[in-house]
C-alpha cells in the first residue's frame, strides 16, 4: 500500500484503530524517520486521544486507558533495548490480557515477538511517500487490510 505523505500514514493508523481488540499486538517496523510514530499518532487519535502523542523512545512504554482512549493500549518503543531478555521486566505479556500492544522496533524482541502479531513495515517510497507492507496471521483475517 502506498501512502502519499504523513496524512495518509496517519489515516492508515486510524483505519487500523477501527478493528483493534484487547489482546491484539501490532508490530510496527521501519527505519528511523520512516513514519512509525506518525502511524501510531493516527491510531491513537482515532481511538480518542486528544493530546500530543509523544514517541515512547525514552520511557519505552506509554500506557493509555479509558477514558483517554476507547480501549486500553500500550505504546512501546524498543529502539533502546539491546537484549530481548530486558523485555521480561516490561510486563508486555500481562498487558496483552486486556490491552492492545503497539510495538515500534519489534525486531528487538527476537523470538519473543508473538506469532499472532500483525507485522507492519513502513519504508520510504520516493520523497514524501511511504510503502506499507504487512504480514497478517490468521487472527487478523478479515480485519487487515481494512477494506
How are the elements arranged and paired?
Blueprint: E1 2-3, H1 6-17, E2 25-29, H2 36-46, E3 61-64, E4 73-77, H3 92-95, E5 100-104, E6 118-124, E7 130-135
Parallel strand pairs: 2-5, 2-6, 4-5
Antiparallel strand pairs: 1-7, 3-4, 6-7
Helix pairs in contact: 1-2
Query: What number of structural domains do the residues give?
Result: 1
The biggest sheet, with number of strands, parallel, antiparallel or mixed sense and barrel status, is: 7 strands, mixed
Which spans have pLDDT < 50 for at least 5 consecutive residues? none
Summed over residues and divided by their number, the pLDDT gives a mean of 93
Overall form: globular
In N-to-C order, the SSE pattern is EHEHEEHEEE
Given the helix and strand composition, which structural class is it? alpha/beta
Number of helices: 3
- End-to-end span in angstroms? 12 Å
Strand order of the largest sheet: 1-7-6-2-5-4-3
CATH level-two architecture: 3-Layer(aba) Sandwich
Family: Belongs to the TsaE family.
Subcellular location: Cytoplasm
Organism: Rhizorhabdus dicambivorans
GO cellular component, one term: cytoplasm
List keywords for this structure.
single chain, 147 residues, alpha/beta, Rossmann fold, seven-stranded mixed beta sheet, 3 helices, 7 strands, 18% helix
Amino acid at each position: 500500500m502506498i501512502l502519499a505523505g504523513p496524512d495518509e500514514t496517519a489515516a492508515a493508523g486510524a483505519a487500523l484503530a477501527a478493528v483493534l481488540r484487547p489482546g491484539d499486538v501490532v508490530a510496527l517496523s521501519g527505519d528511523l524517520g520512516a513514519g512509525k510514530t506518525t502511524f501510531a499518532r493516527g491510531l491513537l487519535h482515532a481511538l480518542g486521544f486528544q493530546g500530543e502523542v509523544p514517541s515512547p523512545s525514552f520511557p519505552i512504554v506509554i500506557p493509555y486507558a479509558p477514558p483517554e482512549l476507547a480501549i486500553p493500549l500500550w505504546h512501546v518503543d524498543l529502539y533502546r533495548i539491546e537484549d530481548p531478555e530486558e523485555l521480561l521486566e516490561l510486563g508486555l505479556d500481562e498487558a496483552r490480557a486486556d490491552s492492545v500492544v503497539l510495538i515500534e522496533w519489534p525486531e528487538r524482541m527476537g523470538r519473543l515477538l508473538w506469532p499472532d502479531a500483525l507485522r507492519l513495515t513502513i519504508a520510504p517510497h520516493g520523497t514524501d511517500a511511504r510503502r506499507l507492507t504487512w504480514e497478517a496471521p490468521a487472527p487478523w483475517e478479515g480485519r487487515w487490510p481494512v477494506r
